Amino acid sequence: MDFVLFLITALALIISLIREIRKRGHDSIGVVVWKYFSYYTTLSNLLVLIWFAALTFWPEHSVTQFAKNPNVATAITFYIVTVGIANYLIYGWLKLSLFERISDLLVHAVTPVITLSYWFFFVEKTQLQYSNLGYWLIFPLTYAAYTMSHGKWTEFYPYEFTNVQALGLNRVLLNGLVLSISLLVGGALFIFLGKMLGKF
After folding, report:
1. Is 92 helix (H, G, I), strand (E, B) or coil?
2. Where do the H-state alpha helices sit in 68-200?
3. Please, what is the average pLDDT of the chain?
4. What is the Cα–Cα distance from 111 to 101, expressed in whole angstroms?
């Protein structure tokens, strides 16, 4: 099971990268790859890929034991599920070519669904702790800080709400605060759901 999920996630990332390369315009392959890995969607899918890879290929490794921790597994699941939800809430059902549609569905729908399904059936949930919510913000906030930092020099912002040049620093910081609060509330609800499911 873990290996199949690993393959599906790897395929999603590969096809998504091919999509970006096909529409690169005047950018070099190197720039395209860098931009590709500058998206939160890509990094969240990559995090899932690493998780499944650890479970598949190094089940006894200390890092894998850490990844098997219910709070870590739930955080990873939460990241990728919110990627899918946010994408379709913000952008809706865009008009895309067949290849673009497949690529979009793989990283924004398929990976979130299979990860959520794995979490639902195989992750122990009774040990979930609300006290870990603060740690859940490390990944998205680190990403936001990185995006704002490189954007100042590269003028490339993967998401408009992080664009300091267009919106101004105060607006971007406000967006970050709203996002953090939303993630905390969403994370708390996710843990609550997990605890309820863990009773059955």
Report:
1. coil
2. 70-91, 98-105, 111-122, 133-136, 138-154, 164-167, 169-198
3. 92
4. 14
109 token code pair: 């729908």
Higher pLDDT, 111 or 2: 111
Q: What is the mean pLDDT of residues 143-171?
A: 89
**3-state class of 100 per DSSP?**
helix
Q: What is the CB neighbour count within 10 angstroms for residue 87?
A: 18
pLDDT band at 142 (very low <50, low <70, confident <90, very high): very high
Give residue-wise pLDDT tens across range 23-68: 888 889 999 999 999 999 999 999 999 999 999 998 888 888 888 8
First to last CA, the chain: 22
Distance CA 21, CA 42 (A): 14
Alpha carbon 98 to its chain's center: 23
User: Which pLDDT score is estimated for 91?
Assistant: 81
Residue 104 carries which side chain, given as an amino acid letter?
D
CA 195 from centroid of its chain's CA atoms: 22
pTM of the predicted structure, to 2 decimals: 0.93
Amino acid of residue 16: S
Nearest to 8 by CA among 38, 52, 39, 67: 52
Long-range (24+ apart) CB contacts under 8 A made by 192-198 are 194/70, 194/74, 194/119, 194/123, 194/125, 194/128, 195/125, 195/126, 195/128, 197/120, 197/125, 198/124, 198/125, 198/126, 198/128
